[in-house]
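Researcher: Structure prediction, please.
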Amino acid sequence: MRTVCLLFACLPGCGSISPADDPPFLGFGEAQAAGQRALEARFDAQIKADNLRDWMKRLAARPHHLGSPYDRENAGFIAAQFKSWGFETRIEEFQVLFPTPRTRLLEMTAPASFTASLAEPALKEDATSGQADEQLPVYNAYSCDGDVSGELVYVNHGIPKDYEELERRGIDVKGKIVLARYYGSWRGIKPKVAAEHGAIGCIIYSDPHEDGFFQGDVYPKGPYRSGRGAQRGSVMDMPLYPGDPLTPGVGATADAKRLPIKDAPTVTRIPVLPISHDDALPLLQALGGPVVPEPWRGSLPIPYHFGPGPTRVRLKLEFDWKMVPLYNIIARMAGSERPDQWVLRGNHHDAWVNGAADPVSGMVAVMEEARALGELAKAGWRPRRTIVYCAWDGEEEGLIGSTEWAELHADELKRHAVAYINSDTNGRGFLHASGSHSLERLVNQAARDVTDPQKKISVAERLRALRLTRGTPEEQRDARERAELRIEALGSGSDYTVFLDHLGIASLDLGFNGENGGGSYHSIYDSFDHYARFGDPGFAYGVALVQIAGRVVLRLADADTLPFEFTASSETIAGYGREIAKLVNDLREETEKRNRLLKEGRYEAAADPRQDFVAPKPQPSVPALDFARFEKAVVALGKSAQENDEARRALEKSGKAMTPEAGKSLDGLLLKSERALTGADGLPRRPWYKHQIYAPGFYTGYGVKTLPGIREAVEERNWEEAVKQAVNVAEALELYAAGIAQATTLLKAAARD
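Model: Predicted structure follows.
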C-alpha cells in the first residue's frame, strides 16, 4: 500500500508537444499532402452560405419534434438531398417511447392563489412563434405522471452539494416539492437528486441571472430569454443509459423486446415541470424561512428564501405514453481503396419546436459539407475510405436515434468505424472542439487552415487569443507554452455519446459559439428570425464549420494512414491522474480539518457565525490508496506514445512509404485503438457506459467525468471501489499502450525496408 499523496509525483507529463517539424497533414506523405491541399481548396470553392440559409428556412418552417408530421417531411427532404448529391441513401426507422402532455397544472394554494400560465406568447417579430397547434407545450419529457401537493422548498440548482447546504441548515425536503433553477447541472439531475432526498415533485425555472435580462436585452429586442420564455427538455436519466427507455442496449426495432414502462429506470420517480421566471416569481415571493446565501441568489427583484412554506403548491401532470416512429437518414459514399473503414459524420434533425439554432444550424452545415463532397465526386474524386453521413432523429428526447442505430449495428461499427465526427448547434464566435485526444493534433492542423470570418486570422489563433485573455491560469499557460491547443473531454449531451462511451469509437464534437447570445434554447423562439438576427447573420460561421469539419472528414477519409496521434492522449491521461491524486489529498485535509473543528466544538462558528447550523457527524479518515498498477500503466503509456511518435517522424523523414498491406494493417490497429479504453463490465451501477477515460458524471448529466470509475468512487468516499476501478483503468491503459506499440513496430519496419 502507498499513500496517494505520492502518486504521480515522478510521472512525466510527456512534455509539451512540439510538432513544428510535423508535416501539415498528419497521416499523409509529402507528395500526397500537396494533393490534399489542392483538394481542400476545391472543396472550399464549392461552399455557399446561401444554401445554409435556404435550408434552415425550409427545415425550421414548422415545428418538427420526434413523431410529428413535419419531422417525417424533413427526413424525406434531407434524404432526397443526399441522394441527389450521389450518396447511397436510406431512412432507417425505429419505434420508440415518447410521452407528450395531456394535463399540466401548477398552482399555488397558499398563502395566496396563483395558477402558472405554462405558455410562451406569440410575437409579431417572430413569424413562426404563433404555430400553437403544432408546438409541443412547455414540459419535461420522461417525467412520470403525478398529482402532488405540498410545501415548497427552494434548492438553488438542485445538485448534491445544494442538498448538503440544506442539511447543514436543518432543512428537509422529504414530502415536499422543490423549486430549482436551471444551470449548475443538466436538468435531469434535478428531479433525480430531489427524489433521492424524499421530495415528491420538482419544478425547474429559468432564472434571469443565467438565462435572461441579467445577460442583456431580452427577445425580441435582444437575444436573451424573456420573462415568459421557458425551456423544454428531457429529464430521462441518461447517466444510466441514453436512448429509448424501453430497449436498453438493443436497437428499438418494431419487434424488439421492451421493458414495461413502469420498469423503465430512466423515467423519473417524481413529476417534474419547467416554468418561466414570470411563473416562478409569485412562488418565490411567498416563500419564508431564512434568506439564502449569496451564491444561491438569482436576479429577480426579491430576497430569495429557502422555505419550506408558507408557499404550498399543487403539481399535476399526466402524459400520453405512446410509441412513435423515428427516422434516421444514413447516406454513404463508398471508399475506393479501403471501403471497410468508415468515417462517420452526424448531426440531428429533430427539434423541440422549430429548432433553427438547435439543431438546424449544425444540420445545414453538415448538408453543405456533404453537397460539396458530392461535387468533388462528380468531378472524379473518390474517398479512399467510406464516408457515412448521418442525420439523427430523436436526439432531443435522449439521444435516441443515434443510440438505437448504433446499438442495432454495434458489431459492424466495432469492426469498421474509424471515427465519429459530430456537430449540433452552431453560431458566431470561437471554435469549440471536444473529443478523443488521439484526434487532437488532427483538429489543430485543420483549425490552422480555416480563417475566422470576423477576425481574418485562423480559427486556431483566435481560440488561442481567447484562452490567453479570458482563460483560467492553466489555460493561459497552455496557450503560451503548448504548440497544440487542448481539446476538451466529452461527456454527453449529443449524438457522439453512444459511439464514444458505449462502443469505444474515437469521436469529436465540433462547432462555433460564444458570440451568438442565448435565450431561444428549447423555446418557440428558436426560430429562423431569431437565428438570422442573433445566431449567425450571413451564416459565415456556418461556412467555417463546413470548412473545419470537412477537412477533418477528408483527412480521415484520404490519409495514407489514419491520422491518429497518441502523445496528447498520454499527456492528458497523466493529467487526469494528477487530478485524482489532488482530489484524494484535498478530501483528506478537509476531513481532518472538519473532524478537528467538531472535536473542539468550533464547527458552527467556522461555517458562518450568523446562521444556525446542524453540525455534521465526524467522518472516517481518508485511507492510503494503492494505485500502483494505474501509476505504472500511465508511465508505460507515455513511453509507448512517445516511441510511436518518434517512429512516425522517422518514417516521414526517410521518405519511404508503407506498402499497401502494411498500411492497411497499421490502419487496423489505429482504428481499434480507442476500443482498448473500454471495459466489458462498464462503470459501476451503469454498465452501458464502457469507456474508462471519459463519461458523463452520474450527477452532472452532460458534464464529463474523466477517469469516471475512480473519480466518482473517490467523491463518494468508496475507497474499496476506487482501488478496484484504478485496476480496471490500468488494464485498459495497458491494452491501449500495447496496441500503440504494435503500431510502432509496423512503422519501424517500414522505415527499415
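Model: DSSP finds 23 helices and 16 strands in the chain.
Researcher: Thanks, that helps.
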